[in-house]
Design a protein that fits this description.
Layout (H helix, E strand, L loop, with lengths): L8 E8 L2 E13 L4 E5 L15 H4 L10 E5 L5 E8 L6 E10 L3 E3 L2 E4 L1 E9 L5 E3 L1 H10 L4 H20 L33
Parallel strand pairs: 1-8
Antiparallel strand pairs: 1-2, 2-3, 3-4, 4-5, 5-6, 6-9, 7-8, 9-10
Length: 201
């Protein structure tokens, strides 16, 4: 599959137990052999295909992305993305920090890429230091069968690798991404017609 061009819409699809679980249309910022960067535009509507396991955002009534949007950096083979967040109002948009979102390594598809969130995350605020997030929820989901025992062990290993990287200060991403601003001409992307029938993985 070829690379996407800046501004293209790429569907980020979460796949749980072999079936699409949640779909988010994103705008491509950069795409190449070493990095895929996509942006979730504020107001973007999520898609929740029929699934035996209801998505928690759907149950909470969370249908759209709010706030300043989210930039996600993906390296091929990494079992996490590096997500950037901003805070403040529209006239005072400030970088807040880096959020390391553990997930399946992304897999390219004709319309975007597939992954699955692993619940366990790490927050690296702009002021320094780091904290892990949602560890209890992750362990509960392993016990409930969302992830197998083997997957749980692999996710924990990824977490340890991230902790070692953060402690050593050997992060790989360019700090200049914190200055990113989305193209003001980008409209909010929509789910394409027939997205529910998007081919199964």
């Amino acid at each position: 599959m070829g690379f996407f061009a800046p501004g293209d819409v790429a569907l980020r699809r979460e796949v749980l137990h072999g079936r699409p679980w949640a779909v988010t249309p994103t705008r491509v910022v950069e795409d190449g052999p070493d990095l895929l960067a996509v942006f979730t535009v504020p107001g973007t509507r999520f898609g929740f295909p029929p699934h035996p396991v209801p998505h928690h955002w759907r149950e909470l009534g969370r249908e759209r992305w709010n706030g300043h949007g989210k930039l996600q950096l993906h390296r091929p083979g990494d079992a996490y993305s590096v997500d950037l967040y901003w805070q403040g109002d529209a006239d005072d948009r400030r970088f807040a920090g880096w959020y390391l979102n553990l997930q399946d390594p992304f897999r390219r598809t004709p319309l975007g890429f597939d992954t699955l969130d692993h619940e366990l995350d790490y927050w690296v605020p702009v002021g320094g230091g780091w904290t892990d997030r949602d560890r209890e929820e992750f362990e509960a989901q392993v016990a409930q069968g969302k992830y197998t025992a083997e997957q749980g062990d692999a996710i924990r290993r990824t977490g340890k690798e991230i902790e070692a990287m953060l402690d050593a200060g050997t992060t790989w991403w360019d700090p200049a991404w914190s200055e990113f601003a989305p193209d003001p001409g980008w409209p909010v992307p929509a789910l394409p017609a027939g997205w529910e029938d998007y081919p199964q993985p």
